[in-house]
Specification:
Layout lengths: L1 H6 L5 H20 L4 H38 L7
Helix pairs in contact: 2-3
């Protein structure tokens, strides 16, 4: 969970936990508002899709940072001949 929090640039474990629980919380709110269980499931699916999109962006950024780090590790500071 700590790595997820760091990679996702969250404000802490509580913030990361809220983001992970949000699809289910939104589904519960939909049911409390009188929507059917199917409507609640649709709401959860939409929220999960938004979360997946965010996680894909986090993964892309992490790979970019890793590539930059690897490039920095390979740079020996030598002038080209």
């Amino acid at each position: 969970m700590d790595e997820f929090t760091e990679l996702g640039d969250f404000d802490g474990l509580s913030d990361a936990g809220r983001v992970l629980m949000l699809p289910y919380l939104e589904a519960m709110v939909a049911v409390r508002e009188g929507r059917s269980s199917f409507g609640a499931a649709v709401e959860a699916a939409k929220s999960m899709a938004r979360l997946n999109q965010y996680l894909a962006e986090v993964e892309k950024e992490h790979k970019r940072q890793q590539k930059e780090k690897e490039q920095g590790d390979l740079d020996l500071g030598l002038s080209p001949a």
